[in-house]
Amino acid sequence: MMAGMKSLYPPLEPFDSGMLPVSPVHTLYYEQCGNPEGQPVVFLHGGPGGGIIPDYRRFFDPAAYRVILFDQRGSGQSTPHASLEENTTWRLVEDIETVRAHVGVGTWHVFGGSWGSTLALAYAETHPARVRSLTLRGIFLCRPKEIRWFYQEGASWLFPDVWEEYEKVIPEEERTDFVSAYYRRLTSEDEAVRLEAARAWSVWEGSTSKLLFDYAMIEKFADPEFALAFARIECHYFMNNAFFPTDNHLIEQVGRIRHIPATIVQGRYDVVCPIQSAWELHRAWPEADFRVVPDAGHSATEPGIIHELVDATDRYKGL
């Protein structure tokens, strides 16, 4: 690692965790770590459907921050697992408010990458008065052109070897619309069909997330329990335009949050969420601090991305 590069803070355990019912259907797992008297920050994970892992606690100075993390509907330890019922962007925005009220904070910092950046923007644009700062990585605006690039044609030109594995689950006659074809299988009554589709969908993303292949990451994405929630929930959101009223909703509403201190961190060679979307957000929101990492892809755990994210949270801890 280059001199002066920031790395993750040391591992830490939660001082509080529990299950929070947010609807008659869904109960969310949440945890808090760091300093109970510190600056509150909420961590929004990716996917949708990705869930939280212990390393996500480590982007924040534990002496300065009270870090609040939770598994979104159907994800991680939240129940029911992989459920699509009442699972929409706007329900998740409500859930963030439910978690905030439950932990008893008035305003907080918001941190999210990939789908977490989508959700952070949707939340901040809905509740701007609740947000002290935004730290966003791997910008995903969940627009049809972004879905087409990654799941239909575009990224396939860069990873033809891995794409072949994603493609072969779907018969040739259904390949004009991979998302719909996968959705049919991910919602099949047949568990074997669901699992085969979930693994292929999930491994495709795990294989393309870093500048260099990371086999441990691919293995995690191949795990059946992880893959099922991840693939089913993602595909459900993409079939429904992420429940946004227009294709460009998050950019159209950006005027509501331009006053909020914000950092956008983007890997130059991000194939999952190409830099085009981050660039369009930057053009619409020039006040945000825009950081392009020259030697990184999509993952939050690449050294240059870690450095910029930790640098941002270190700067915001005084707000």
Structural overview:
This protein is of the alpha/beta class and 319 residues long. Helices cover 38% and strands 16% of the residues. It has 11 helices and 8 strands. The protein has helices spanning 89-103, 115-126, 144-151, 160-167, 178-186, 191-208, 215-222, 224-239, 249-252, 275-284, 303-316, and strands at 16-21, 27-34, 39-44, 65-70, 108-113, 131-137, 262-267, 289-293. It has an 8-stranded mixed sheet with strand order 1-2-4-3-5-6-7-8, sandwiched between helices. Helix 1 crosses helix 2 and helix 6 packs across helix 8 (224-239). The longest helix has 18 residues, at 191-208.
Spell out the key features of this protein.
alpha/beta, 319 residues, eight-stranded mixed beta sheet
How would a textbook summarize the main sheet?
A: 8 strands, mixed
| Shape category | globular
Beta-strand fraction estimate? 15-25%
Helicity, as a percent range: 25-40%
Read across the widest sheet, the strand sequence of neighbours is 1-2-4-3-5-6-7-8
The number of E-state strands comes to: 8
- Which spans of ≥5 residues are poorly predicted at pLDDT below 50? none
- Secondary-structure element series: EEEEHEHEHHHHHHHEHEH
**Average predicted local confidence, pLDDT:** 96
CA gyration radius, whole angstroms = 18 Å
Give the helices and strands, then pairings.
Blueprint: E1 16-21, E2 27-34, E3 39-44, E4 65-70, H1 89-103, E5 108-113, H2 115-126, E6 131-137, H3 144-151, H4 160-167, H5 178-186, H6 191-208, H7 215-222, H8 224-239, H9 249-252, E7 262-267, H10 275-284, E8 289-293, H11 303-316
Parallel strand pairs: 3-4, 3-5, 5-6, 6-7, 7-8
Antiparallel strand pairs: 1-2, 2-4
